[in-house]
Amino acid sequence: MFDKLVLVFAICSGVVSALPSPASESQPVRRDISGTSNVYFGENTGEVKNWASGILLGLPLNPDQIPFHWLGDIGFWNMRSGGSQLAAPSRGWTYGYDEFMGRYASLKADYEVTRQHGGNFQIMIHDLWGTDTWPSFEATPMPGDNGSYESFDKFLDTLFALLIQDGIVENVWWDLWNEVDNVDFLNRGLDRWLEYWGHAYHKIMRDFPNAKTTGPSYGHLPNFAGPVENYFSGWANFVAANNSFPEKPSLHFLYPNGDLTTSINSWNTFLNAAGINYQGTWNVQEYGAPDQQIPSTAVWNIAQLERHNAWGLRANWRGGLELHDLLANLLGKSGHEPNYNVSDVNYWPAREYPVYLYYHQKMKGYRVRTEMTEDTLGDSFVTVDPAERRVRILFGCRPYTGVWNIGLNQLTSLGLPASGELFVTTWRFNSAPSIYDEVSGPDFIGEWSHTYTNGELILPVYQVDPSITWAFEFSY
What we know:
The chain has helices at residues 68-72, 97-116, 125-129, 150-165, 180-187, 190-207, 229-242, 260-273, 295-307, 353-361, and strands at 9-12, 15-18, 36-47, 54-56, 78-81, 120-124, 172-175, 213-215, 248-253, 283-287, 311-314, 331-333, 347-349, 366-370, 378-385, 390-397, 402-409, 420-429, 443-452, 457-463, 469-475. It is α/β, with parallel strands linked by helices. It is globular, with a radius of gyration of 24 Å.
């Protein structure tokens, strides 16, 4: 698409530099383009919802420990909780009622904070049950062992009563179990998993008020299922026959390659084969592997989720009490691992926080349709703010270097003439070596004039640092 290029800047070596106009003797250096993320301003895809501003755990046991603004400023609205990895005396139901109450206290605190922000709350049953501190899968008590659900039903009845007593009912979603495909349902096998699903689903729907369920919460994606493909086909066929398809199906989006469109389409292939025609949106309960929790891939994931109106919750790779702090790596503090200090409340923005701040506070109005680059490694999220008459573009990529284009199409839909001059400002979001390091920004790089024709403009992105990312703005 360089034959359409009318360009006045390039992003190179982390610097935006002015380039000569096409009329000058000097021309831009041609480099291989890995693909174009096209933007279509004539295609409104709905109001801004900040679909990606959810987190897995990341809230302290003290609900007042992280000041309100750290969550409010990024539009936090979705939480997944259950007391994961808490040690004695809070190891869950399998160690007795008192240890269950330790994890319940964590869930209760998380719910309090989530509802302060008007958020949805997903309850992870397996964590409250307590599967993460036993010496082996075989030693871990599981629902249905020896053909009995007596303890499990007592566990749910106890939990239901506490939740109702404490007013934890509104916006509650039940996550039936986590990543059973990774561990073959703790070596119990697919048939036991499906038996459990049917038992738990129908009990929850029958005994908890206004119950809503989500699942199956697999660790694999269907297009990378390989040896666990039977977990996808088996579950789809079972829930169709058992009348236990969840209100919102879930997936985990953690792979180093692939894209969300392909994964959702692959899931729908399994569902359609079982006679399930699901037309709703998906719950992406975990996104962002450790190497993806950098500004560039944060934006890439945001763009993927926004394209599908998918709920998005940031994955959390901490452990122990730190798992219940730092907003799933969005914040840092001096008392971090290996010398974690639970009482340290001196928080600062870590390397991705400025991206989410911009995403929530700046990107207002309505969204427009975008496409990821042909190699799937680059993507953009774009909003149009009629109140400010301002367009804002976030462009990000998988953690790679390369050259990509942003293709601005249908500029006349904004009321601009078919040909003319556009002044585009550029902002750079910096990264840091450690997930705990403080990062400010973004940095203002500059504003440059662009001549465009036929209602189209190409902006090239020279990504020489795989971790940084970019925002572009212009008025219309």
